[in-house]
Amino acid sequence: xxxxxxxxxxxxxxxxxxxxxxxxxxxxxxxxxxxxxxxxxxxxxxxxxxxxxxxxxxxxxxxxxxxxxxxxxxxxxxxxxxxxxxxxxxxxxxxxxxxxxxxxxxxxxxxxxxxxxxxxxxxxxxxxxxxxxxxxxxxxxxxxxxxxxxxxxxxxxxxxxxxxxxxxxxxxxxxxxxxxxxxxxxxxxxxxxxxxxxxxxxxxxxxxxxxxxxxxxxxxxxxxxxxxxxxxxxxxxxxxxxxxxxxxxxxxxxxxxxxxxxxxxxx
Length: 267
Prior knowledge:
alpha+beta
């Protein structure tokens, strides 16, 4: 999940829908402003908000294994600017080295697999797959497939704020501050808002001793329709996986193809 607008999939939830739901559920908890005047936070980079990102990433990277389920909605923008909402679910199995990411929706499905030696992209509905040799760490794989093939995996940035690879983006933040607190899926969280050159995004981080990110919202400001992505995340800390979970075995009808290089990926 890299946020630059040229690589975003567009998405969203309308405020009117949220307000309508709240009218029916009086137990809904809304964020409380982090300052007396939240508007005054625009253009301010609060070090504590940046530190919260780093601490979240460091915590995720400290896990031996992780299981994640992301329920998301994203906007597809038509030629006349109408936003069409589409839902999907992404599941993750993560170890070091190795990961399996499955994206499933009514429109398409994809599986991304890394077993410590090879990286595979598989389309179950189409029956095609491509496998390429990969370096020996998760971080190196993420960098390599982005630079060589233009592939940016869902939510990868959550793991990269603390390792130095996102230092330039942190330095270029236009604003970063704590909005307040909110209860997300029954969990008390700290709500943070960030602005980059073309993207606004928010993250809700568990306020307890395990700072899991619980919700993520991204808005593409490059598009006049401001397509939005929203995801609710649930986590398993240190689940048990087998080596076979990370091994790709093509079905009898699966067809292998080449993974095309993308010259513009590093731009």
